[in-house]
Write a structure and sequence with these properties.
Pfam families: ABC_tran. By secondary structure, this protein is an alpha/beta fold. It contains eight helices and twelve strands. The protein has helices at residues 41-48, 71-75, 92-97, 110-122, 138-151, 168-184, 196-202, 225-232; strands at residues 3-12, 15-25, 30-34, 56-61, 64-65, 78-81, 156-160, 188-192, 205-210, 213-219, 236-241, 244-249. Helix 6 links the parallel strand 7 and strand 8. Helix 5 runs parallel beside helix 6 (168-184). It binds adenosine-5'-triphosphate (ATP).
């Protein structure tokens, strides 16, 4: 389903953070949200699923305006992975099963349990199934929160810095899983990400935020060093190593 975001404006008290934010995202696409610290990336993600209430604008998923739905209804369509999350004493299995909550009426079904088992296996988290989440390392915990979002089987994944605590291998493992899931299950993902090399590897297009608004919505092939310089204030080279685009500060 297509996500169509129009004219989002948001302020904390009287401090304007986002204005005139608009973009369109098709199914099976991963949008990297780029911008400097404090640009408003997390704020934007939270405006899309109504954790924050934008002053104006609309967020259409197909013909449905998400901002007209309540939190429980939104959770059936959108899963959100925050940048910070609390320590939980739940076991890993139960924490991931919580992702099924928007779909469960009375009790978890065999299907719900199977979905959780599959995701734990895909993400190499099986061995932690019975461990309380608050005994895991930061990176292991981050994978559990992403597993929970996948268990939710949403149409849109909203991921705020999903790889920030992960080592190189896990960054690639997790981004590969996300890429594969969105392609196999016709989802889309909106991912705030600081690591530009990871972004160019996995995102299909970029929403670049600067001065509280959209600097550009560009496809990967159209990204230029000038755009990176304008948005981040640093000169970079854009190169290619064995078919992979790389960005190097100079
Ligand atoms: N609850 C709040 N009250 C007031 N200002 C806030 C609040 N939360 C965030 N801000 C401010 O809003 C601006 C945007 O913050 P946001 O977290 O969306 O940026 P970001 O692009 O995600 O940053 P980072 O890359 O550092 O995570 C920042 O200047 C921040 O200080």
């Amino acid at each position: 389903m297509t996500l169509l975001v129009k004219d989002i404006e948001f302020s904390y008290n009287s401090l304007a953070i986002l204005k005139d934010i608009r973009f369109k995202l098709g199914p099976r696409q991963l949008l990297g949200v780029l911008g400097v610290n404090g640009a408003g990336k997390s704020t934007l993600l939270k405006c899309l699923n109504k954790i924050l209430h934008p002053k104006t604008g609309s967020v259409f998923l197909g013909s449905r305006d998400m901002l007209m739905l309540n939190g429980a209804e939104i959770a059936r369509h959108m899963a959100y992975v925050p940048q910070k999350y609390g320590n939980e004493s739940l076991t890993v299995f139960d924490a991931v099963l919580l992702g099924r909550k928007p779909h469960i009426r009375w009790a978890a079904s065999q299907k719900d349990l199977r979905i959780v088992e599959n995701i734990l296996r895909q993400m190499n988290l099986e061995k932690f199934s019975l461990r309380p989440v608050n005994t895991l390392s930061g990176g292991e915990m981050q994978k559990v929160i992403i597993a929970r979002a996948l268990a939710q089987e949403p149409e849109i994944l909203l991921l705020d810095e999903p790889t920030s605590s992960l080592d190189l291998k896990n960054q690639f493992e997790v981004m590969n899983i996300i890429s594969r899931v969105i392609r196999q299950q016709d989802l889309s993902a909106v991912v705030s990400i600081h690591d530009l090399n990871l972004a160019v590897r996995f995102a299909d297009l970029f929403l670049m935020i600067k001065d509280n608004t959209v600097y550009g919505l560009v496809e990967k092939k159209d990204l230029t060093p000038e755009m990176v310089r304008d948005v981040y204030g640093i000169e970079v080279l854009l190169g290619n190593i064995k078919g992979h685009t790389v960005i190097v500060p100079v």
